Amino acid sequence: MVISFVGLPLFKLFGLHLDNLTYVDLSEIKNETMRTVLTFLSVLVALMSFAQGINIPVDTTITTQHITTINGQKLAYTAVTGTQPLWDEAGEPIATLHYTYYRRSDTKDFSKRPLLISFNGGPGSASAWMHIAYTGPKLLNIDDEGYPVQPYGIKDNPFSVLDVSDILYINPVNTGYSRTIPVSGKEVKREKFFGINADITYLAEWLNTFMSRNNRWLSPKYLIGESYGGTRVSGLALELQEKQWMYLNGVILVSPADYNVFESDAPISSSLNLPYFSAAAWYHKMLPLELQGKTLNELLPEVEKYTLDVLMPALARGGSLNEKEKEVIAEKMAYYSGLTKKSILQHNLVVPTSFFWKELLRDRDGYSVGRLDSRYLGLDKMEAGGSPDYNPELTSWLHSFTPAINFYMSEVLNFKTDMKYNMFGSVHPWDRQNNNTRDNLRKAMAQNPYLNVMFQVGYFDGATTYFNSKYTMWQIDPSGKMSDRMCFEGYESGHMMYLRKEDLKSANDHVRKFILDTTIDGKSAKY
User: Fold this and answer.
1) pTM score > 0.70 for this model?
2) CB–CB of 5/56 below 8 Å?
């Protein structure tokens, strides 16, 4: 099988290097030898003609026209899907990124039409998740709680934000149909793509080209990033300002991953999990009756206060806590988490989330609970053990997302290719060094009075917990002087809170309001 790139010189398609080629004066070859060479070449060409190549367009667009109804309003829109290259310093393409761009067809003035730029996370995840399940004009077929149903497919999204903003979905390198050039081998410049700062740098360059090609420089611009995408867009906000001179109106962080929290000591990283433990235990009815009878909005502030005022200082003391003090803390943690006091003490009060997923329902139902969405149940080989066998929510989502995005790209948007759509691509090892994205977002906000930030999180997300996000929001601006430009929205769902129909509507309404409230018309950008 031959993998080729449209628009590249022929010798590169076959992996040939000019400095390795030997040129021969054919006039010096004897007739017999010439006939042998020509016969060989004829056979080679014939074989090549039967070779079925995978064609990766480096630079192409496919445009289709559509009509939909959003919030009762009928509107026409244009969908542009294709690939746009990324070049090195010599002007040679080193990657091509697949994207899908939706714009309202009746727009006359792009300077007043916002553009929402969407990334998922991973790192290594395609943009399909928010594309066909959240903000875009189409939804995959799932039930009202987000579980897969057959027949697979897509339908209109009556809650999409396309009524107030155009939308651009981008697949970073090796996700979706995006690929390095070449696809593999020693020539791939992995250091250019696969790391926190490399990722931010090349995506900012790519966006500069997109804005120029599509006449979007005058538009109010917004970034939305889910999970690791939250890290990505936090860093992009400053990178776009300082290196591309492109200023934003807003950044939306959906279930964001903050590695400053994950990589901190137990007093922070572990204690922040307790409110999530309470939420998940409440959902599965594992709390004492007096807590189970409360709503989440009544329960969680109580647990958050205990976490900040008691648990975090206690974990900071570590081994200096005496046995009586440990007993008191463990008893309260058990009260709020649905776990046993004994199991908490056995973990020295620092309970891993993986243990919680395995332990919560072990003795009652024998199921594990999901990592990204703890409403989901898993069936492990053995009830014993310290962590689940698999992530039941992720396997459920891939069940329905993969057929839907492949069908949608090929049959609705007419992007025909034999390339595999990578729901998760090969991007590891990923360089996590010099991660300053949280502070970079603060700096971008300080430099740009127009820039606002919104957090959207699910209470049952055990990977990037909602209280982690609250903590991150508080740490972005320790002075508190920009707190009026940050807001926080929580939902009774998981990592991808929009999979639950009730939250799909409310989350899109929150994005819509955020965009309308922060699209400034005539107001000066100054303090």
Assistant:
1) yes
2) yes
